[in-house]
């Protein structure tokens, strides 16, 4: 654990130590002391605070990922100011982020953090942007009826940034569900918009699906769906969680299967769990081409594995080849 707060170090360390399969082998009050401890103790996972004196968590994370890539769980605060830093941490290669307890008693801190640490320990860390996505042809033109639906979770921030770097400005309408707290979504969408050629925005209910636009599910209390037949639109639905999530990839894919059928292409990317597998199968059954990210390029090969297991994946590809295949399937 790396955190400048003695209270936070003691509280999180105590909570994690209750689990027989997790051992907290060291705590550090900042990056300088943590550097030596990492060399000496060789931990499986690091938890890292973002705001610390001397060197902040982002600077330290960047050094870790460059010199000694390993699973890092950021302990962050769900605030507007912290959202940009959190998205940047995920882009740099942090495994995931976990909300810091709001009180000194640590209410709500427990099983979900332990599960995150366990999964992080089993995850694959890969160098970022090893093979840049191929740039689309200058004369690319999508079919009028084509659209793309994408689902991702843990590891999805850096994965989506890399994927969309291969999209042209006039890409097919694209809808995305990325599992993340609602507070982070506007910052994430704005960052995708700055780093890619298409226009990327948070999906609004009733917004028409137009070429050159990427729509990211807002999360929180709503699912993102597609509706409308020939004139497709985004629809936000306040409903119970599906497959353990809201927004749910399954919920999005099921609506795409219904309203777009064989004219759509679906992709399921890195992430824990099985959300999206059943929906992708429905898309495939409706005639859609479906793509699963391969194990070697996933941070967590959970969602794509679940989809492949039930026969929902038409073809499995490394991340570096997915953008080009999506575009080819949607080409006029």
UniProtKB/TrEMBL annotation:
Pfam hit, one: Response_reg
Domain of life of the native organism: Bacteria
EC annotation from Swiss-Prot or TrEMBL: 3.1.1.61, 3.5.1.44
Gene Ontology cellular component terms for the protein in this record: cytoplasm
Subcellular location field: Cytoplasm
Stretches of the chain forming a coiled coil according to its record: none
Top enzyme category: hydrolase
Modified residues (4-aspartylphosphate): 49
BP-aspect Gene Ontology terms: chemotaxis
Segments forming domain CheB-type methylesterase: 142-332
Location of the active site: 153, 179, 275
Domain Response regulatory: 1-115
Keyword field: Chemotaxis, Cytoplasm, Hydrolase, Phosphoprotein
SUPFAM superfamilies: CheY-like (SSF52172), Methylesterase CheB, C-terminal domain (SSF52738)
UniProt cross-references to InterPro entries, sorted A to Z: CheB-like (IPR008248), CheB_C (IPR035909), CheY-like_superfamily (IPR011006), Sig_transdc_resp-reg_Me-estase (IPR000673), Sig_transdc_resp-reg_receiver (IPR001789)
Annotated catalysed reactions: L-glutaminyl-[protein] + H2O = L-glutamyl-[protein] + NH4(+); [protein]-L-glutamate 5-O-methyl ester + H2O = L-glutamyl-[protein] + methanol + H(+)
Modification(s) after translation: Phosphorylated by CheA. Phosphorylation of the N-terminal regulatory domain activates the methylesterase activity.
One term of GO molecular function: protein-glutamate methylesterase activity
HAMAP family, A to Z: CheB_chemtxs
Domain comment, as recorded: Contains a C-terminal catalytic domain, and an N-terminal region which modulates catalytic activity.
Job of this protein: Involved in chemotaxis. Part of a chemotaxis signal transduction system that modulates chemotaxis in response to various stimuli. Catalyzes the demethylation of specific methylglutamate residues introduced into the chemoreceptors (methyl-accepting chemotaxis proteins or MCP) by CheR. Also mediates the irreversible deamidation of specific glutamine residues to glutamic acid.
Protein family: Belongs to the CheB family.
PANTHER family: PROTEIN-GLUTAMATE METHYLESTERASE/PROTEIN-GLUTAMINE GLUTAMINASE, PROTEIN-GLUTAMATE METHYLESTERASE_PROTEIN-GLUTAMINE GLUTAMINASE
Protein name: Protein-glutamate methylesterase/protein-glutamine glutaminase
Source organism (scientific name): Sphingomonas taxi
Gene name of the encoded protein: cheB
């Amino acid at each position: 654990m790396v955190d400048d707060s003695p209270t936070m170090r003691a509280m999180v360390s105590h909570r994690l130590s209750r689990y027989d399969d997790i051992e907290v082998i060291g705590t550090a009050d900042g990056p300088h002391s943590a550097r030596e401890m990492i060399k000496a103790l060789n931990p499986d996972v690091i938890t890292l605070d973002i705001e610390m004196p001397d060197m902040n968590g982002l600077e330290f994370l960047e050094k870790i990922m460059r010199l000694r890539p390993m699973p890092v769980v950021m302990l962050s605060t769900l605030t507007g100011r912290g959202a940009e830093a959190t998205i940047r941490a995920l882009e740099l290669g942090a495994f995931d982020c976990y909300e810091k307890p709001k009180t000194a008693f640590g209410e709500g801190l427990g099983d979900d953090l332990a599960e995150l640490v366990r999964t992080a320990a089993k995850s694959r860390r890969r160098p970022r942007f090893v093979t840049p996505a191929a740039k689309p042809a200058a004369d690319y033109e999508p079919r009028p009826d084509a659209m793309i639906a994408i689902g991702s979770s843990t590891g999805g921030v850096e994965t989506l940034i890399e994927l969309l770097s291969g999209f042209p400005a006039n890409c097919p309408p694209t809808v995305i569900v990325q599992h993340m707290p609602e507070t982070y979504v506007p910052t994430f969408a704005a960052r995708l918009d700055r780093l890619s050629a298409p226009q990327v925005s948070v999906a609004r209910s009733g917004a028409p699906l137009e070429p050159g636009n990427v729509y990211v599910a807002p999360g929180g209390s709503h699912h993102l769906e597609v509706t409308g037949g020939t004139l497709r639109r985004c629809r936000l639905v306040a409903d119970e969680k599906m497959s353990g999530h809201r927004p749910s990839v399954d919920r999005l894919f099921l609506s795409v299967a219904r309203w777009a059928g064989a004219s759509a292409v679906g992709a399921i990317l890195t992430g824990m769990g099985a959300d999206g597998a059943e929906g992708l199968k429905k898309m495939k059954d409706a005639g859609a081409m479906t793509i699963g990210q391969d194990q070697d390029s996933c941070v967590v090969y959970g969602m794509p594995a679940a989809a492949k297991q039930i026969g929902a994946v038409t073809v499995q590809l490394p991340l570096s080849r997915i953008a080009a295949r999506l575009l080819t399937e949607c080409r006029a």
